[in-house]
């Protein structure tokens, strides 16, 4: 298990665990980040990670992406 930020662009993986406060977990769940869901890194720059989850592309901060374990 490793944080989402460790994946390179184009790589995909399944979410195994989401850490953080309950409020952050609920927010991510509403965006489609749930345990078992496949995610793919579209791109990563200095402050954000763009992730494809379900049929959407979502930008999340590296701090949040570090709480998503794949």
UniProtKB/TrEMBL annotation:
GO molecular function list: transition metal ion binding
Natural source organism: Sporofaciens musculi
Superkingdom, taxonomy of origin: Bacteria
Keyword hit for Transport: no
Gene3D superfamilies linked: 2.30.30.90
SUPFAM superfamilies linked: C-terminal domain of transcriptional repressors
Record keywords: Iron
Entries under InterPro entries matching the protein: Fe-transptr_FeoA-like, FeoA-like, FeoA_core_dom, Transcriptional_repressor_C
Protein name (record): Ferrous iron transport protein A
Ferrous iron transporter FeoA-like domain span: 2-70
């Amino acid at each position: 298990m490793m944080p989402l930020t460790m994946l390179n662009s184009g790589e995909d993986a399944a979410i195994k665990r989401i850490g953080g406060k309950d409020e952050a977990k609920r927010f991510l769940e509403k965006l489609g980040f749930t345990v078992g869901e496949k995610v793919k890194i579209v791109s990563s720059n200095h402050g954000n990670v763009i992730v494809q989850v379900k049929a959407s592309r979502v930008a999340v901060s590296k701090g949040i992406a570090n709480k998503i374990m794949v």
